[in-house]
Design goal:
Layout lengths: L8 H14 L5 H9 L5 H10 L7 H8 L4 H7 L3 H4 L2 H20 L1 H4 L2 H14 L8 H7 L7 H26 L4 H9 L7 H8 L3 H13 L11 H17 L1 H7 L1 H20 L12
Protein name: SalK
Amino acid sequence: MTSPLPERAGRRCHNVINPLHSTHYFSPDLKRELTAVGVTDQRAAYFAVRAAALGPVGAGVVTATFSNFRPGLVARHVPAVWETASPEVVLAARLRAVDATLRRLLGEEAVASKEMAEAAELALRAAEACTPHARPLYAAHADLPVPDEPHLAFWHAATLLREHRGDGHLAVLLHAELDPLEALASHTATGKGIAPKWALATRGWSSEDWDAATARLRERGLLDAEGELTEKGAALRARIEEETDLLDRAPYEHLGAAGVERLTALAGELLTRALAAGAFPEGLIGKS
């Protein structure tokens, strides 16, 4: 028997594991590795590395599973990117980029440490309880082999935990009747989501699209005239996270309270190192 998890323990663990997974998306190492296999467009590279586990899928599958990208942007790069580099080639390039990124951000000592090996063991144990049904991105990544080196095994487990939660989160957003851009805009209004300039630059939406989405949120009483969450809007966003926690509870319950606490501490220390090394661009998160 494991002891009950403290409230939001799984979410707190996710909030330090997920950024460690995401470091490679902003890494010059990924750009170098994808360029070497012929994928030179940054947006095409993102679609390729995240979708490669699904196989050579078309734009519809990527749009559906990624959710918050403008369909036309996806179609501009998918499935054409697979003509340049197959999913197998992309997956190998991605793992090389992750290896280089983690070594650069964390340092060789941290990569080779017993703490890294412990974090990998804990994260993999948590991922044992993830379930594939109705979770396509998680399921696709779960079919990939676990890398041998501890820092790559940890990243692989972090990817499984991230995509497992993410797939469930999309189901909750559907239930909340938020379309992709409304979900982005309302999350940004919490102060914890991607900043509008980054959303527009990376997701393919226009300023007019963003304004229309915020207008719809105002009509529903979720945003006020200044673009801030109303009481109703804040309650909805809180409920979305709580329902996502509910759908994502299995891996953390499986790991147990002590294991979750330890994994959160270990991942938190690694994230602190990564942030200090400039893992993410300035202004990525926030309301402006």
